[in-house]
From TrEMBL:
Top-level taxon in the UniProt lineage: Bacteria
UniProt-annotated stretches for the region Disordered: 57-84
Membrane topology term: Multi-pass membrane protein
Span of domain ABC3 transporter permease C-terminal: 274-394, 736-851
Protein name: ABC transporter permease
Keyword set, alphabetical order: Cell membrane, Membrane, Transmembrane, Transmembrane helix
Organism: Streptomyces armeniacus
TM spans (from-to): 269-295, 318-345, 365-386, 407-430, 442-475, 496-516, 732-757, 782-804, 824-845
Biased composition (Basic and acidic residues): 63-72
Keyword Transcription carried by entry: no
The MacB-like periplasmic core domain, residue ranges: 19-234, 499-701
Subcellular location: Cell membrane
Length: 859
């Protein structure tokens, strides 16, 4: 009971200093709980959507699930004509309805503005069926009744201000179709952001599938009392298993959820990983807090020991304070996590993905995990300070000696830190020399872990060296105040090392990712300059193939010397001895593509590969299957015949552009694949006439204005787009790392605040002998700046080492340029100084307000 009272009294006495530690715990727990609530809510939302939109049994073409959202033909796989009639005759079928659905569409308004989602959710076109009525209802107008009418979902209508009577143009592989909005349908379950349009069944079949007798699937409803599994057996018996896939409602919902769940799992574990980094940083904060509190209470602890308290009781007293801190921070963190999840849902809503807060899902596991993590991490972080507190002897009551120093422990720490750092550097070197990315990645991970642990352990030893060097550059210009700040930072190297290490972790990751991102962009840019001869690249950012109408507009563009087609044709390849290769497709392109992409060859020339019945393979493929010039491959075209194609060129694999591609001419592919089954262009390339580059660029953009899904980019645009994509990814990661950096800043604030309290008498004496308040505040700010720069220097140096090693592994995949983003590194370094200044504002202000006489009288 005495231990409990003592802990409560001490906790209350230092409540102001515990707040920052509690905030660190709160932020970390909130991030974990918020991530889990957000992803669980998304899973729950999709579960309800898929359950509501799945029929009792769904019949689909075999292999349709393996087809990408954007089929190469531009038209989704369809069932044979007559399938619907056969399904209706199966036993136990109450009703069966043909469904037409395609994601290979773009919907635009009269100003050619894309009506699709901006979040990456698909645009879906289909026919309005009874199955749709299970999840939607028409809230305005009526369903489409002919080819000139179209119905849209309410979310899309609200987002783009659409109303009844407005005209929309739908772009598909079969052409364009303009129709007026006849109705608006509202989801009764949450729509995660897809834009949906409906046609009448006949129009949907002819427009989306190019055949009035086919459907993409059949939705089957069971008679009363007939289980879904039994209905599935009956329907499969009526149709046979050869060309069809059958799914019950549960199986269809599970399959759809699995596809979405894999993406959500990646997002969830990535966010939890950043939460783990924040927890790691928070450990340094808590260790420092309790170490300093124990040091300040040395006399008190000594008196407790003199009055009969055992080591175990002192230890328990400190741990109980940590328990209180963990419970408080974790409970608040769980609540904040729910708020964070709601905020993320609102953010997604503003971006077009509609997630209703009424669907908020808080599983019992989530708050339990948050509480356990927060409390366990806090108590474990306080264990070492508690153990040191237990070692305080009763004689410490007679002197103000601080917690006992352990020289042997310091030596062991230094040796262990050197060993870990040396092991980490050795692993990083081994990774940089690896000849395979898989083995190199393992060594890179080991090197990152060991070097990080080594720098954390050896931090106090590094502090003594690095802080002195920084002081020469930063502090000495401030005269005696700067020297005092240097002495304060060096007074307790362990404390400085721990505070700097917290900042080091986040900045090391920032530097590493910056180096990797910059190297990727620089490598790709160099490769583009070296290999791409085309002036313009035309493609869809969502992977949609280029429709024949859009392709024809490009070919008719004035000022162009040539336009090259580029198609991916599904095919399986076998060697002369019948061995099946791992190739799944070949690239069929115009002969002019050899000018548009200057691919180096190790044997033959690429132009030879565009000859009759010829093709090229890449160097790795040739080595793996022992192929040489003149050897023939048996090519089984999925939508055509089988042919014997001769290898006329072997391209280098030492590039990041088309390193694995197998090339042949369009003419060769057309010999084996019927014209109506030939895939659409995946992208196209243009070459301007000499001196007419600007005119051709403007003309291409004007010609493709009615097709906003396609982007016309010259080489500068393409490089900028690549840079923007990498930049967006890095900004997202930096945003997640900001949590760890905020916790690290709290650590600096807490360390300084407790340090000021610890040096109260010293500060009073310095003030008494002439140190002004302004000089005192400057001294504390400079101390904070040098600690922040110490952490930044270690973190940036470590991160650049990690990034350079990662680039060596990327070089195995063709990304050979190492680019150090010096502007970013310098900005982060000086930004760390600003962080140090900001962190010191409150502690410096409080120190400046101290009463000199009261400070001198402090014990």
């Amino acid at each position: 009971m005495t231990v409990l009272k003592t802990s409560l009294r001490n906790f209350a006495a230092h409540k102001g200093r515990m707040v920052l530690s509690a905030i660190a715990v709160l932020l970390s727990v909130a991030f974990v709980c918020g991530t889990l609530v957000f992803t669980d809510t998304m899973n729950s939302t999709f579960d309800k959507l898929f359950s509501a939109t799945s029929a009792d049994v769904t019949v689909s073409p075999k292999g349709a699930k393996d087809e990408q959202e954007q089929p190469k033909s531009g038209k989704p796989a369809s069932l044979p004509a007559g399938t619907l009639d056969k399904v209706k005759q199966a036993e136990g079928v109450k009703a069966a309805e043909g469904v037409v659905s395609s994601m290979s569409v773009t919907v635009v308004d009269k100003d050619d503005k894309n009506m699709g989602s901006s979040t990456g959710a698909p645009t879906i076109a289909g026919n309005w069926t009874s199955n749709d009525r299970r999840s939607m209802q028409i809230t305005s107008g009526h369903a489409p009744r002919g080819p000139t009418e179209i119905m849209v979902d309410a979310d899309t209508a609200d987002k783009h201000g659409l109303k009844l009577g407005d005209e929309l143009r739908t772009i598909a592989a079969t052409g364009d179709r303009t129709a007026k909005i006849s109705g608006i349908a509202t989801f009764e379950v949450t729509n995660p952001g897809a834009a949906i349009v409906y046609f009448d069944t006949g129009t949907a079949q002819k427009f989306l599938l190019g055949d009035s007798g086919k459907f993409t699937n059949v939705a089957v409803t069971a008679e009363g009392g007939v289980p879904d599994k039994e209905l599935k057996r009956n329907v499969s018996g009526a149709l046979g298993a050869g060309n069809f896939t059958y799914e019950t409602q549960q199986e269809a919902a599970d399959a759809n959820q699995q596809e979405v769940g894999s993406f959500l799992d990646v997002m969830k574990y990535a966010m939890l990983g950043f939460a783990g980094i924040a927890f790691l940083v928070g450990i340094f904060l808590i260790v420092n807090t309790f170490s300093m509190l124990v040091a300040q209470r040395t006399r008190e602890i000594g008196l407790m020991r003199a009055l009969g308290s055992s080591r175990k009781q002192v230890n328990r007293s400190v741990l109980f304070e940590a328990l209180l801190l963990g419970v408080l921070g974790s409970v608040l963190g769980v609540g904040a996590g729910v708020g964070l999840a709601v905020g993320l849902m609102e953010l997604m809503g503003s971006m077009g993905m509609n997630l209703s807060t009424s669907e908020l899902t808080v599983k019992p596991f989530t708050p339990v995990l948050g509480l356990v993590l927060g409390i366990v991490v806090t108590v474990l972080a306080a264990y070492l300070p508690a153990r040191r507190a237990g070692k305080v002897s009763p004689m410490a009551a007679l002197r103000d000696a601080g917690t006992p120093a352990d020289g042997r422990a310091g030596a062991v720490r230094a040796v262990l830190g050197l060993l870990l750092t040396g092991g980490g550097l050795a692993a990083l070197y081994a990774a940089s020399q690896a000849d395979k990315a898989a083995s190199g990645s393992m060594m890179l991970g080991l090197g990152v872990l060991l070097s990080l642990l080594g720098f954390v352990v050896i931090g106090p030893l590094l502090a003594g060296v690095v802080v002195r060097v920084l002081s020469v550059v930063v502090l000495r210009m401030f005269g005696s105040v700067g020297r005092l700040a240097e002495r304060n930072a060096l007074r307790n190297p362990r404390r400085t090392g721990a505070t700097g290490a917290a900042l080091m972790i986040g900045l090391a990751l920032v530097a590493c990712l910056s180096v990797v991102g910059s190297s990727m962009v620089a490598s790709a840019t160099e490769e583009l300059d070296k290999s791409v001869g085309a002036d313009y690249i035309i493609q869809s950012d969502t992977g949609q193939p280029i429709t024949p109408a859009a392709a024809e507009k490009m070919r008719k563009t004035p000022s162009l010397e040539h336009v090259s087609d580029y198609k991916l044709v599904d095919a399986e390849l076998r060697t002369a001895d019948g061995r099946k290769t791992d190739a799944k497709d070949v690239t069929a392109a115009s002969p002019t593509y050899a000018e548009d992409l200057r691919v180096e060859t190790v044997a033959g020339t690429l132009s030879d590969a565009y000859g009759a019945n010829a093709m090229s393979v890449n160097e790795d493929f040739a080595k793996k299957y022992k192929l040489g010039l003149g050897d023939k491959l048996t090519v089984d075209f999925k939508d055509g015949r089988t042919g014997q194609i001769a290898v006329r060129a072997i391209t280098t694999s030492d590039t990041s552009l088309e390193s694995g591609a197998l090339f042949m001419s369009l003419a060769t592919a057309e010999r084996y694949v019927p014209k109506d089954r030939m895939p659409l262009n995946q992208m196209m390339f243009g070459k301007a006439k000499e001196g007419q580059e600007e005119a051709a660029y403007a003309a291409l953009k004007a010609e493709l204005k009615p097709y906003p899904q396609y982007k016309v980019r010259d080489q500068a645009d393409f490089k900028q787009n690549l840079q923007d994509q990498v930049g967006q990814m890095l900004n997202m990661v930096y945003g997640l790392l900001a949590l760890a950096i905020i916790v690290a800043i709290l650590g600096v604030v807490n360390t300084l605040a407790l340090s000021v309290v610890e040096r109260t008498r010293e500060i009073g004496l310095m003030r008494a002998i002439g140190l002004s308040r302004r000089q005192l505040r400057r001294m504390i700010r400079l101390e904070s700046v040098v600690i922040a720069l110490f952490g930044a220097l270690l973190g940036l140096g470590l991160g650049m080492g990690w990034g350079a090693t990662a680039q060596k592994l990327l070089a195995l995949e063709g990304l050979k340029v190492l680019e150090i983003p010096w502007p970013t590194i310098i900005m982060v370094f000086f930004g760390s100084a600003v962080v140090g200044l900001v962190a010191a504002l409150v502690p410096a202000f409080r120190a400046g307000r101290m009463n000199v006489l009261n400070a001198i009288a402090t014990e």
